[in-house]
Each structure stands twice: as C-alpha cells, then as structure tokens.
C-alpha cells in the first residue's frame, strides 16, 4: 500500500458542480436556511454536551498566554472561537465558507446523497470533532511548554478521525522506485542559519488535494513548479501566483486507484518527463482519475531527471535545498488533524504523507502541505529540526528541468 490512501466512504467528484447546483439539489431552498435547519435538528447526547460545556468553562479560566500555546481560533479571515462562540454559530460559520460549500458540492456530484442528508452527516462529524478538540487542548495544556502544539478548527475538521486516517498510507514507504533516478552526494555549501525559497519567489501558493490520496502528485508537481520559477522566474518576470501546473494531467496518467491507494513521488516525475504537464487552466483538478491520459505537446515543463536519496542527514537535505530548490519529502502525518502551528507532539516513524520542504529557520523545517490554507500556519507545517521529527529525513527528492 502506498501513500495517502483515501476512504472508500467518499464519493469522487468533478469541480464543475457550482454553489447554484448545490442549492438546486436543496429543492430551491436557500443553502444557509437549510444549514441552519440541519444544525437546529442536531441532537447531541446530553451527557456529551454537558461534558463539552464543562470543558469550555475550564478553558475560559486558563491564562491567555498559556492558552495561546495550545489553541488558535483563526479560520482564514474568520474567527471560530470555541470558548466565546456557541457551537451552532461555529458550525454555521464553518460550512458557510466558499471552500466548504465547494467540498459539499463534490460529495453530491454522484447524486447518491441528498444535500440535507449530507449536511446532517458533516455537521455531526464537525460537532464531534469540536468536542474532541476541547479535550485535546486541555490535554495540551497539561504538557510541558516545549511539548505543546497549537490546535484549532482546520479545513479538514469535517472529517472523522477514521476518514482522516484513511487519507494516509498504512505501510512504510520502503518500496519507492529508484528507476530513472540518480543518487548523488549533497553539494558542499555553507549552510546558513535560515533559508526559505518563499523569500526568493520560488514557492507557488498552497493547494488542496481534497479527498483524493494524491499527496505524492501534489508534492512532485510543487517541486517542478519551484524548479521552473528558480530557472526562469526572474529572467521571464514570472511570479509564483502565475504558475499553476495541472496535478490532474499527472493523476490521469498514473495507475488506476491512486485516490484510494496513493502513489509514489517519482512516478509523477516520470509521467512529467514522458508526457509533459498541462496548466491548471487546461486541465483543472477534479480529485479523481478521469481515465484520460494524454501527452502535453505544449508543456511548459521539460523534465531532465530527478535525484532521490533515503535515510538522509539534515545537512544533506539542507544542501540539496540550497543548491537545487524545494525538495519532496515524506513524513508520518497521523497526528496532524487539528494542527494550527508548529508541531511539538509525539510523532511516529511510519511514512504516510508526501510534502515539500521549502526551507528552514533556526529551529524548524518550513514545509509546504496540500491540505488547503486553513490548516497549519497558512497551509505550512513547521516541524522541529535536529531530531528527525516524524521521520522527515527518510526521503529527499528533487527534479531537474530543462
């Protein structure tokens, strides 16, 4: 089994379902009214709700500086504060954002669920997760300061724990293919205290893989976008915001079952080398495999090769980043569901998720994820350096373009 396995529970969907179509499936009822109706019908177990209120009362007495170590109420431009807002209002605000309406529309595209039924399902899961979040925040506050991680409501808080875990692989990444790759020694460079390609206009905006297990595709494409910006960005006056390559054109050329079973980073690079890659405008992401694998004769990118290595030292990875640009990496992501800041909690060594390391500061790796901007720190993961946290040093790979 490979990375980012997605749940069979989910329906795979197209992005051409609009908010208007969602409202049409609501039998012309206003979406917000329907959402409020579902929330009103929500019937918590009274014991659980009483326990939640007691937890909130306890959090309300915590010193603000201590609370800030473990809790972040921001959600994009909104504030979803579990201490000062009632639960119904939080749920309404969460599901009335464009991103969440889009996500609901994806699940409706097969027509197997009625909107009210889906809303009830998602509202109950979010409410359950908020109840659980309060307990996790309280548990965090019991930890030493150096072990605390800031938590909160994220773009994946509407997923159950089982659903979140099903997005991840369940075996070590020990069968990564080495064909068509070259393993080299890291260049001999002086390593600065901090360095980030975000400061050099070489990191494209945060993307969202949604509920397809395509993290390896997103990692591979993100490194190719960065390689293009490093080589041609300044020369051609290209900004990171203007480069958006098509993960879909790669996803469609991989073996069937990627959304369920995941794939490997180098498989995506191999597709780009053999077939080129479209832009997002030409082939928008659909979070499913469409079965249409095509060559891209007008490809913006021409891939030469890639290099990859295993069981790396931190210095080797830093030198790769300095010399060549952001690198693909693999981590254990099983404890990152509610993360809103640097991660200091317990993390295992089981490889489950592909990401991109774009740089570092004194104490942390700076890592680009593919779970949307309302997760981590604006979509980025800050992982402690110097301890192989979450097995971050297991794999390093970087593409070369021409």
Automatic annotation (TrEMBL):
<dbReference type="InterPro" id="IPR025661">
    <property type="entry name" value="Pept_asp_AS"/>
</dbReference>
<dbReference type="InterPro" id="IPR038765">
    <property type="entry name" value="Papain-like_cys_pep_sf"/>
</dbReference>
<dbReference type="GO" id="GO:0006508">
    <property type="term" value="P:proteolysis"/>
</dbReference>
<keyword id="KW-0732">Signal</keyword>
<dbReference type="InterPro" id="IPR000668">
    <property type="entry name" value="Peptidase_C1A_C"/>
</dbReference>
<protein>
    <submittedName>
        <fullName>Group 1 mite allergen-like protein</fullName>
    </submittedName>
</protein>
<feature type="signal peptide">
    <location>
        <begin position="1"/>
        <end position="24"/>
    </location>
</feature>
<dbReference type="GO" id="GO:0008234">
    <property type="term" value="F:cysteine-type peptidase activity"/>
</dbReference>
<feature type="domain" description="Peptidase C1A papain C-terminal">
    <location>
        <begin position="191"/>
        <end position="400"/>
    </location>
</feature>
<comment type="similarity">
    <text>Belongs to the peptidase C1 family.</text>
</comment>
<dbReference type="Pfam" id="PF00112">
    <property type="entry name" value="Peptidase_C1"/>
</dbReference>
<dbReference type="InterPro" id="IPR013128">
    <property type="entry name" value="Peptidase_C1A"/>
</dbReference>
<dbReference type="InterPro" id="IPR039417">
    <property type="entry name" value="Peptidase_C1A_papain-like"/>
</dbReference>
């Amino acid at each position: 089994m490979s990375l980012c396995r997605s749940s069979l529970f989910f329906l795979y969907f197209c992005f051409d379902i609009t908010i208007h179509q969602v409202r049409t499936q609501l039998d012309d009822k206003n979406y917000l009214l329907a959402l409020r109706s579902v929330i009103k019908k929500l019937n918590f177990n009274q014991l659980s709700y009483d326990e939640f209120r007691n937890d909130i009362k306890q959090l309300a007495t915590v010193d603000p500086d201590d609370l800030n170590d473990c809790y972040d109420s921001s959600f994009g431009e909104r504030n979803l504060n579990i201490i000062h807002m009632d639960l119904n209002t939080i749920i309404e605000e969460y599901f009335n954002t464009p991103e969440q309406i889009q996500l609901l529309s994806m699940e409706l595209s097969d027509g197997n669920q009625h909107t009210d039924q889906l809303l009830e399902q998602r509202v109950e899961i979010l409410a359950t997760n908020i109840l659980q979040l309060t307990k996790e925040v309280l548990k965090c506050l019991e930890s030493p300061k150096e072990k605390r991680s800031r938590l909160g409501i994220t773009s994946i808080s509407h997923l159950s724990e089982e659903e979140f875990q099903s997005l991840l692989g369940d075996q070590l990444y020990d069968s990564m293919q080495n064909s068509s790759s070259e393993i080299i020694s890291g260049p001999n460079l002086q390593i600065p205290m901090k360095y980030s390609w975000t400061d050099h206009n070489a990191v494209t905006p945060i993307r969202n893989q949604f509920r397809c297990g395509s993290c390896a595709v997103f990692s591979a494409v993100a490194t190719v976008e960065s390689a293009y910006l490093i080589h041609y960005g300044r020369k051609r006056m290209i900004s990171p915001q203007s480069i958006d390559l098509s993960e879909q054109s790669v996803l469609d050329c991989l073996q069937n079952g990627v959304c369920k079973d995941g794939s490997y980073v180098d498989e995506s690079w191999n597709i780009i080398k053999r077939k080129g890659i479209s832009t997002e405008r030409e082939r928008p992401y659909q979070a499913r495999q469409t079965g249409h694998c095509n060559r891209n004769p007008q490809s913006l990118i021409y891939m030469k090769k890639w290099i990859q290595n295993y069981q790396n030292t931190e210095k080797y990875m830093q030198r790769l980043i300095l010399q060549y640009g952001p690198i693909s990496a693999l981590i254990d992501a099983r404890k990152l569901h509610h993360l809103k800041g640097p991660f200091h909690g317990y993390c295992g060594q089981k490889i489950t998720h592909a990401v991109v390391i774009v740089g570092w500061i004194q104490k942390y790796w700076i890592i680009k994820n593919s779970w949307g901007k309302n997760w981590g720190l604006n979509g980025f993961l800050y992982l402690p350096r110097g301890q192989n946290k979450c097995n971050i040093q297991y794999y390093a790979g970087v593409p070369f373009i021409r």
